[in-house]
């Protein structure tokens, strides 16, 4: 079907397809560096991910150096419509030096900033509180040992300083997200002590004013090895973010599988100014599958649009699948997030709202089901054409060719 025909069909529902395309292209998505190398990073000090997170699979072509990762990222961005961001973790430093986590500084990440400037990509940052000998107890900022806590506090402070300088260099605030794996395998006696320690440590980490970055904190229901208690629970961080006036990160894999993260957005937005999303796909647990255009993701996008939250929500992705092409995983995931947003912008929200307000739930349901039959694919293809990005079979060909090139070389 031609775009003009599709556009006319949407117009019958009072929807402007051109405006939906433009709105979608304005949204920058923060693509996570760690999908590119299975959360290994470039430290010469440690091995596996740790912290109860795990990339599974051994697909050929994993990026082993910053240059390889940047080449993969450049390819991925060339397959994705619009301008986006890169979400860096502190273990992805690019330096010949071997600083420990409490020794990292901006210079270790400066090559990423030069690259980001050249590519027109924004940068976000994360301290890495896992995959380190001092995190082997599954306790970092809440560790009972003051020395261990101080080590991680220093890491957190330095990460904020780095994020601040990145934000300054790039002229766009750098979101610095704190996730700690802290918790207990078996039932603790003194949860309050651990949570009080975490709060005190976080206060020390975020004490300095760093105007070019934004603080976010990420909760989790449980992780492998900390099944009985996660110190940084949702309630803990929700309260903390409200009290300290910082952003709350909601990771779609960090709640009970029956919970709907889309439903949380409006509730949370009444209490915090800013939200960071880690869009992910949990399967039975926080399995970090590549995101789909499934109901969970579609509803997230719909809520962001209908509740007018896009201006104060940072959209980041968080998944890592090493059983498929890593570059394809990025491209599929970011494009799916964009497709979800485009679908949301293509909804006749005014009519739907009117039906709901007048308690006409029959019309509301009829409409939501009928609009599923509108020619969304033609609008997406047009968006790709306008941004000179491939769609359909052409995309598959490009992804395959790149994967073949890296699989052979690495
Ligand atoms: C690597 C990320 O920081 C990590 O995935 C974190 O955001 C998380 O979701 C841990 O489960
Ligand atoms: Mn996450």
UniProtKB/TrEMBL annotation:
Catalysed reaction, written as an equation: L-rhamnopyranose = L-rhamnulose
Compartment(s) where it occurs, according to its Swiss-Prot or TrEMBL record: Cytoplasm
Pfam families, sorted: RhaA
Q: What does the record give under GO molecular function?
A: L-rhamnose isomerase activity; manganese ion binding
Highest taxon, organism lineage: Bacteria
Q: Which UniProt keywords apply?
A: Cytoplasm, Isomerase, Manganese, Metal-binding, Rhamnose metabolism
Return the cofactor note field: Binds 1 Mn(2+) ion per subunit.
Q: A GO biological process this protein is involved in? A: rhamnose catabolic process
Enzyme kind, highest EC tier: isomerase
Entry's Gene Ontology cellular component terms: cytoplasm
**In what pathway does it function?**
Carbohydrate degradation; L-rhamnose degradation; glycerone phosphate from L-rhamnose: step 1/3
Cofactor(s) needed: Mn(2+)
Residues bound to Mn(2+): 254, 286, 288
Give the Enzyme Commission number.
5.3.1.14
**Which residue stretches belong to region Disordered?**
45-64
- Entry-linked InterPro entries: L-rhamnose_isomerase, Rhamnose_isomerase, Xyl_isomerase-like_sf
As for family, the record states: Belongs to the rhamnose isomerase family.
Purpose of the protein: Catalyzes the interconversion of L-rhamnose and L-rhamnulose.
What protein name applies here?
A: L-rhamnose isomerase
Naturally occurring in which organism (per UniProt): Yoonia sediminilitoris
């Amino acid at each position: 079907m031609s775009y003009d025909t599709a556009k006319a069909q949407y117009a019958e529902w009072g929807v402007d397809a051109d405006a939906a395309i433009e709105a979608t292209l304005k949204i920058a998505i923060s693509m996570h560096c760690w999908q590119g190398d299975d959360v290994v990073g470039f430290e010469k000090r440690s091995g596996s991910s740790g912290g109860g997170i795990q990339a599974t699979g051994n697909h050929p072509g994993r990026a082993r150096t910053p240059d390889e990762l940047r080449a993969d990222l450049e390819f991925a961005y060339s397959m994705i419509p619009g301008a986006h961001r890169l979400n860096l973790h502190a273990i992805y430093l690019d330096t010949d030096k071997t600083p420990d986590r409490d020794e990292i500084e901006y210079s270790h990440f400066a090559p990423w900033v030069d690259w980001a400037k050249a590519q027109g990509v924004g940068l976000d940052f994360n301290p890495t509180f896992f995959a380190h000998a001092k995190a082997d107890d599954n306790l970092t900022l809440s560790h009972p040992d003051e020395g261990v806590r101080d080590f991680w506090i220093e890491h957190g402070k330095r990460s904020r300083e780095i994020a601040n300088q990145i934000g300054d260099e790039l002229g766009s605030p750098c979101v610095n997200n704190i996730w700690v794996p802290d918790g207990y395998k078996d039932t603790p006696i003194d949860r309050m002590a651990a949570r009080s320690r975490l709060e005190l440590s976080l206060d020390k980490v975020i004490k300095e004013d760093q105007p070019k970055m934004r603080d976010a904190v990420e909760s989790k229901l449980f992780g492998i090895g900390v099944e009985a208690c996660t110190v940084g629970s949702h309630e803990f961080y929700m309260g903390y973010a409200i009290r300290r006036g910082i952003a709350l990160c909601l990771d779609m894999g960090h709640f009970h599988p029956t919970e709907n993260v889309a439903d949380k957005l409006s509730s949370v937005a009444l209490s915090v100014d800013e939200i960071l999303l880690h869009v992910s796909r949990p399967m039975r647990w926080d399995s970090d599958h590549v995101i789909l255009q499934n109901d969970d993701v579609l509803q997230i996008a719909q809520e962001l649009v209908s509740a007018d939250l896009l201006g104060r929500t940072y959209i980041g992705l968080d998944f890592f699948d090493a059983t498929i092409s890593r570059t394809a995983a990025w491209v599929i995931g970011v494009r799916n997030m964009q497709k979800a947003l485009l679908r949301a912008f293509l909804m006749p929200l005014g009519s739907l709202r009117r039906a709901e307000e007048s308690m006409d739930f029959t019309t509301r349901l009829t409409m939501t089901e009928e609009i599923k039959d509108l020619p969304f694919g033609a609008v997406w293809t047009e968006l790709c054409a306008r941004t000179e990005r491939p769609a359909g079979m052409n995309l598959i060909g490009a992804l395959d060719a790149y994967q073949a090139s890296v699989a052979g070389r690495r």
